[in-house]
Specification:
The structure holds two protein chains of two kinds.
Chain A (H helix, E strand, L loop, with lengths): L12 H16 L5 E2 L13 H10 L5 E6 L6 H14 L2 E2 L8 E5 L12 E5 L13 H9 L4 H14 L10 E3 L3 E3 L9 H4 L5 E6 L4 E5 L5 E3 L26 E5 L6 E5 L2 H9 L16
Parallel strand pairs in A: 2-3, 2-4, 4-5, 5-8
Antiparallel strand pairs in A: 1-9, 6-7, 6-10, 8-9, 11-12
Chain B lengths: L12 H17 L5 E2 L11 H10 L6 E3 L6 H11 L11 E5 H4 L18 E5 L8 E4 L7 E3 L5 H8 L6 E6 L2 E5 L4 E3 L2
Parallel strand pairs in B: 2-3, 3-4, 4-7
Antiparallel strand pairs in B: 1-8, 5-6, 5-9, 7-8
Chain lengths: 292, 189
Amino acid sequence: MTDQAYNFAYLDEQTKRMIRRAILKGVAVPGYQVPFASREMPMPYGWGTGGVQVTAACLVPEDRLKVIDQGADDTTNAVSIRKFFQRTAGVAVTEATTAASIIQTRHRIPETPLHEGQILVYQVPIPEPLRFLEPRETETRKMHELEEYGLMHVKLYEDIARHGTIATSYAYPVKVEGRYVMDPSPIPKFDNPKLSDSPALQLFGAGREQRIYALPPYTQVVSLDFDDHPFDPSKAAHDCDLCGAAASYLDEVIIDDQGGRMFVCSDTDFCRGRREAGHVGALGVPLAEGGM
Amino acid sequence: MNSDALLGGFADTPVQSARAFRAALDALSRPGTIRVVEGATPPAPLSTAAGVLVLTLCDGTTPVHLAGAHDCPALRQWITFHTSAPLVDAAQATFAIGGWDALQPVARFASGTPDYPDRSATLIIEMPGLAAAGMRLSGPGIQSKARLSLPDVTAFKANRARFPLGFDCFLTAGSQLAGLPRASRVEDI
């Protein structure tokens, strides 16, 4: 039930129009960061205020919303944002990736392939991929204008010179449709291949930094690399200990004081789905026995 | 003021504009897709779909240009009352509304600046009809190929050639709505 004290989806109409216009311009110029007049939200910066504003501008009453934080539906950030929109927009919610029409995410792309008509909304802390190389906004803006991305390749090269390999493992920079270099938000580079050619619309909102950008469906997104050091979407060399999945992104969980550890899928919905289908990992027990 | 100008807006603005925006977002992010929208009954010659777009996207911060037959007192009053958008010349417009011929030459509309390509006009092109046939589209939002009954080819090719500068378009006919972002490549095949 919508809380009657709030306008539908919390934001006032003037604000939603402004955000909607920014989203449309973002869709028209894939990978370009559109400035927008980000509002203060009833949660601190860093908790997804950008993503929340984009989601609020997109929601319709018929939507089914899923919110994930590092792949999990049941962490504080995900639970509080889900409750926020249940209360202010009255939308249905779900934990199933396939059942959701809008998915707001912090730092992961779901393992289950997305389908046409879905919208994936990313929470972005620092939208500017060049920011840690060049702190001045005036300069980074000029670099995007001139397609002057040499500095980013120097950074990746210095990784190789120092570590023997590209050590950047999350927020790995990508190039969109051969034009704009974009920060895919702090998703692990394991998720980067899923950015490209996705059937779903991907929207990125950075609240504190006041930027919105977008990847329309079926947009070509290439992770930056070198001919002799090709991009490698690496993950922990393990299977999930609960569901046995060999190809999903894993969290490493310390389970005792003796250095014991287990690897589990970071995508909780994907892992539960596999366990319900009867898959059992090395440390798991079948779901029917009530095991965890 | 004509009292008709007071009518024809959304009855439930938050929900109706949300649904309209989702249709517009879908149309623009998947060029070639034709969506049906409802909720606005603007005075002639503005179509329902164009009226819905105006109510959903325009406000006091978005200068609107009315071209050709659309620049009539009834429509000026309707847009002013419902959105309070200033009505301006083509070069200052954030949104421009009219038939394709009336919008010519399209080069006069804002196409953004190299550092801020988002500061560009959005054209709402009123069409006699819309069909997923005709010009071939490719680019972001299109899996392989899409088709859309566009009024021109040369102008859209020239617009694409200036990427990331350029204007973006919505095409409207009756309650139908389609989108053509500047990133789309148009071929006459």
